Amino acid sequence: MAPSRRRARSSEPAADLLTSLPPPLLDSILTRLGLRDAVRTSALSRAWRRRWVDLPCVLLRYPGNISNFSIHSLDKHSVRRVDDWLIALCNRGVRSIDLQAPGLAIHSSVFLCTSLVCLELHLCSIPPLPVEFTGFPVLKQLKLMVVKFPPNGEIQLEAIINASPLLDTLTLSYVDTRSEALPGWVIGGGQSPEPNYRFQ
Predict the structure, then answer these.
(1) What's the mean pLDDT when you consider all of the chain?
(2) CA distances from 106 to 123, 127, 148, 153, 182 (A)
(3) pLDDT digits 0-9 by tens, 78-103
(4) Which CATH number applies to 64-200: 3.90.550, 3.80.10, 1.20.1440, 3.30.420?
(5) Has residue 41 got a pLDDT over 90?
(6) What percent of the chain is helix, strand and coil (3-state, nearest 5)?
(7) For the chain, first and last CA: distance in Å?
C-alpha cells in the first residue's frame, strides 16, 4: 500500500511556484528582459502566458507606428498600465484610440496625439488639457460617452472641438462638465459641409 501511495503522490502535478509570485514582481522581472525573451516567457506558466503584452515596454520598444489602439476591458493589473500606454502612443502616429476605462482618470498625453483621426473615450475622467496642446489637426470623429471633465469643463470641451478643424462627427452622451451654469456654447470645429453632431 505504501508504494502505491508514493506513486500517487509523485504523479500529482508539481505546484507552479511562478503563479505564487505577486504581479508587480512578475512585471519587474519581465521589464529586465529584452522583448524577444519577454515573449518567450509565455511558455513558462499560465501566469506568464500573456503578461508580456501588458508591459509598457512593448510599445516603447516597438519600432514602427501603431494605427489603432483599443481597450474595452481592464483587469486590476492593466488599469495601472493605461497611462504608460497613452504616453507611449504619442510618438507612434496613432490614428484611432478607443478607450473604455470605468472610473479611471486618464493621462493628459491623449491630447498630444496629433495624428488622431478618431478618438472615443468611455466611462472615464477627462484630465485638464496639457499646456502643450495644439489641437487635433486631422481629427474627424470625437465620441465622449459617460465621461467627467474637470470643473468648468465646458470651456475645455469647446477648446478641443474648436481645435479640430476637420471634425465632422461629434457624439456627446452623458458628459459631465462639472459646471452649474452652462454658458451658450459656440461650436466652431469642422469644415465638413454637413457635420454630424449628436448630443444626449
Answers:
(1) 77
(2) 10, 6, 11, 15, 24
(3) 677 788 788 888 878 899 999 998 88
(4) 3.80.10
(5) no
(6) 35, 20, 45
(7) 73
d(CA 186, CA 172): 15
Beta strands 68-71 and 96-105, pairing class: parallel
* Ranges of H-type helices in 12-119: 23-31, 35-40, 56-61, 82-89
Q: Which residues contact 168 (CB under 8 A, 6 or more apart)?
A: 140, 141, 190, 191, 192, 194, 195, 196
Sign of the CA dihedral 79, 154, 119, 128?
A: negative
CB 65 within 8 A of CB 93: yes
Q: Where in the chain is the domain with CATH 3.80.10?
A: 64-200
Cell numbers representing residue 78 in the block: 492593466
What one-character DSSP code corresponds to residue 72? S
pLDDT in tens, 130-167: 999 999 999 999 999 999 999 988 899 999 999 999 99
Per the document, the length of the chain is 200
**Cα(137)–Cα(162) distance, integer angstroms:** 10
- Is residue 30 within 8 Å of 59, Cβ to Cβ? no
What is the residue-wise DSSP string for 129-156?
PPTT----TT--EEEEEEEEPSTTHHHH
